[in-house]
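seq:
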Amino acid sequence: MLQVHKVPVDSIQVPAGRRDTLHPATVRWLAEDILKNGMKSPIEVRRDETGYVLVEGLHRLEATKWLGEREIAAHLVPDRPH
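struct:
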């Protein structure tokens, strides 16, 4: 089982291609749900030389930013073999 870490949201880079999959209405709905029920599932990130790279959880990350939070619950996952 992966351990949950608190990661600064401003240290997480989103891969360029992932931004195209963002739906603002989903971010707003998710932000409201997080306010009511809390974060149900941590995002997934991997470390790189400058911070973290998002692996999974773009809408949760953006909802957290929209709420003005500085940290987000995240699982640190290993690099994928190339």
